Structure of Mitochondrial carrier:
Amino acid sequence: MTKLPTPVLPAPPPNPELPLQPVPSTSPPQQQQQQASAKHYKGFVAGVFSGIAKLAVGHPFDTIKVRLQTSSSTRFSGPLACLTSTIRNEGIFGLYKGATPPLVGWMFMDSIMLGSLTFYRRLISANFFASYHPPNDPFLPPSVIPLPTYAHGLAGILSGCTVSFVAAPVEHIKARLQIQYSSSKSDRLYTGPIDALRKIYKYHGIRGIYHGLGATLIFRGCFFFWWGSYDVFSRWMRNNTSWSAPVINFWAGGLSAQVFWVMSYPSDVVKQRIMTDPLGGGLGDGERRFRRWREAARAVYKENGPKGYWRGFLPCFLRAFPANAMALVAFEGVMRALPE
């Protein structure tokens, strides 16, 4: 007797009165929030590596710049005279005086600066330029946030103001250590950054530590020119060369840093004058000269005329390209290497 095959019955249609059970999964808002958090942390981590690269290349130039900015023309006739005098009297390590605060400070400052820059770019993009795509930029990589140039500049101003609250005390202590010319520690007012921090806080409190904050905010407000020009240079190189991303980062980073220093250098001279001005009181470092930013600006003009605002510019300009080019290569490279 032949066995008939068992018929396959069709599945019953779903009952419209019964709700369908959802498949458990990560909700899109939660997933987007996790992705955004990951993108934000990348900027802060990459900024640490930027700070290390910047200090290693740029600190000797910075020491020469600060000494020229804060001394009379009778002490050093120019950058070369300052360099040879420093090495002759203090050795090669004299060029790295005051390097400890920025070693820690640049890692922290670049982390805050570049991390907040990334955050502000995303914030501006999400709220004002959600559907924006730069014209004539078909090679825009996915890692670059699409914004018009002036919006990159605005993000730069916001990041500059944010990092000023970290940079002001670091640069203040560094500047005071850099203008101690004696090769003998016993003849110096401060034996090191911790000693300087302790003494200034003892006699002047937290306001003494943050001496020069206003001047720092003015100076770092010029980040508009840095990050605006970085976008211009990067966009041009992407569309007119066949260079790799690290090469573009190097050249755009170096050139945009030089644009920044040309636009901001006079305000940096005034800032250094304020930060190295005696605090007076129980510290015993002399009598305070400048109570306001404009008083320091007038003093620079009175001593040397308009050229006083550009004293020490050459070592700063020479430092700007290699130090910031390597810093941007490190930052963008780590940003690309970190997982999304």
Observations:
- Residues 300 and 306 are 8 Å apart (CA to CA).
